[in-house]
Amino acid sequence: MKTVIQRVSRASVTIGGEVKSEISKGYMILLGVADGDTEEDVDWLVKKIAALRVFDDAEGVMNLPITDVGGEILVISQFTLLASYKKGNRPSWIHAARHEVSIPLYESFCRKLHEFTGLKVGTGEFGADMKVELVNDGPVTICMDTKHKE
User: What InterPro entries has UniProt attached to this entry (predicted)?
Assistant: First the structure.
């Protein structure tokens, strides 16, 4: 699994002109599910993201996790994170998991993130044409890949 985690002051996802989810201070997470990903990858990411200390403490130092600041989370499925660009100029999606694997893992990630943190977790809609808006706070952007856990 690959993720792009952005610390935001606000974010939303709109589908067909209707706002599906919106959050205030927290994380906007793009999640790409790769061939071979499992629930073990979900569990590792959830724990890592929940413990990530990128919110300012009283001294203005990035030292607090999202749970300490009462943040919210928006998770958007993003198969394009798995783009292969080695040959030519048109990306290939051969490393992205098929729907029958990626949808259940995406849903599990969202559910477990909520259960583990106790925070609001908004979602997009898997496979939909989504318009995502956000205000990156910092900017702070962290990329994680379960294939590179060390």
Answer: Daa-tRNA_deacyls_DTD, DTD-like_sf
